[in-house]
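Intended use. Records like the one below are meant for learning the mapping from a protein sequence to its folded structure. Do not use them to infer anything beyond what is encoded.
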Amino acid sequence: MEIRKTVCIATAFCTLTGLGLLSSSCEKNVITEDDGIISDELSTKMVAGFNGESVNGELLLMLSDEAFKIWSQGDSAAVADMVRGDLDLTDFRPALPVRPKNGKLASELGLDRWFVASFTPDLDIAEAGAMLSLSRGVELVQPNRSGQIQPAGQVEHFTPDTKCEPVFMTDPYFRSQWNLYNDGSLDSRFRAGADVGAAYAWNLCGGDPRVVVAIIDGPVKYDHEDLADNMWVNEKELQGTEGVDDDGNGYVDDIYGYNFALNCGSIDWSGEGELGHGTHVAGIIGAVNGNGKGISSVAGGVEDKGRGVRMMSCQIFYGSARSASDLQVGNAFIYAADNGASIAQCSYGYDGGTYKKDNDYINKWPFEYRGLKYFTDPSNANCPAVESNVAVFAAGNETSSYSSYPGALPLCISVTAFGPDGLPAAYTNYGLGCNIAAPGGDDNFGQSSKILSTGIEEINGDYAWMAGTSMACPHVSSVIALGMSYALQLGKHFSSDEFLAMVYASVNDINSSLANGVKQCPDGKTLELRNYYGRMGTGAIDAWQMLMQVEGIPSIIVECGKECRVDLKDYFGGGFETITFTSVETDAVYKDALGVVSASVDDGYLSIRCEKKGSGKIRVKAIAGGTYAGGPGGIGGTEIEREISILSRGVRGWNNGWL
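Structure written out for the chain above:
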């Protein structure tokens, strides 16, 4: 959805208001697209259409090579004269408020050639665009557009149930978080296993403070009791002087991130109509685990395994005007990259189906796109374990068969949503451009079928329910953060392609539930499930499987409640027939997680029965090169063991259970 909104643009590192740019007004002919008098030459410069909603009194333009050369030589007054022509400009400044750290890449992307031209708000933007297009100093000119996304359904305050007992974590509201651990007991209509698999992943890793997630959204309440300890903190600014750029990064007082909506370092949730959307997203990613307060999160740490990931607030929305301009969002991506973020968490977008081709989006949002390219370029990677940063977006809430953009771009991950029944949420977009599914909640079974996370006390309470692909998106961001954290823990390193392939493979099957049938929704709407078959992405993201991908351990899917027999030759290689299998061992934590009743190996086959849906490891022991182990008493074979990941699910996996 493209929305008109008056926004406060960031202060540039150089302006021309003091260089004779302000001139007296004069009469001019009004030129608009509808007049039909814009020449072909001007039309090629005026890109992306001028009849949509945009920021009043502003245009984005790209300088020609000639004009940019003059600008680079320091003659800003000459550039001003060249650009403005007959147009009275109130301001003219670079689109980049701060010079990016990676100047070479910024130049390659043309970011340094983009400028903001401001004029009186009552002047038609098509008229102003046509005037600027007459200049030989202007290569392209277009509106500074705004876009938004909202959660699906209403935000609801959370009333604690004193009957809830902590499970896995000491956080009192964990039991209400089916998205983290769903055993089907909260509601008979909930499906066990329809969750993100976090509770099992915590046995190995709960996050790492070296991994920073930039939440490009509304404000994150950085002093929330369940978020404060996992916030990214700019210590130099925190300990520095108010109003001073203490760390020299070009942004003043950016202690917990930066407020691009109001152009200041203060993250601000006081705007009228504020929903707490960014704060809710943050709680899913990194609410502090095991602190005995509130909720748990996917990557919020585990007491005996260290702190969780850190969260940086890049505020682009303020109050009820949940929209942000091309300029604001593009700069947020650049800030995130330059200040250490490895993941951009983006629960926003433009309605599914608005754009159906990459170029349609790129031409309308050129600055945001270049900011995204800057963030995801390998030269800006901030996590030593992975060769590029990752951008994750919500697929959208319009029930469209297209992902919203920017998520639909190949350089982004687009996330669809399912409910606690494991079926697509009624609102979720699906189909073209959608990559992976995650818990997003719905209204099908009342309030408890939404996602419980952190809120803003004075708005919707310290904890609140929301639903939407906005809530599904941070589940994927946080699983990626866990994967990066575990890779750091193990000292592993992956290329961008390797890591993304692992993300898309770390999924549970969702299609087996979508071959036929319908889902009835409270509003009377009926979802034909076959319409979603093969169109929700590769599957439902699973944190345990992500860690297994990082570790390099293959997983076997076994059917819960049944004795399953799995051929081990695919795992032990070509010398399989010379190996003598001796035993299977299961640590107590995994035996309990899986409900292992029996596990044995015979004739090269693993036989195992699990009574719980869950994830864990077993160790298969064997002797290579003989039927007994060698030792002081005589020559024999060598004892070996291999770990195998077991996924106990409602159905047996294809390929004899192997993933």
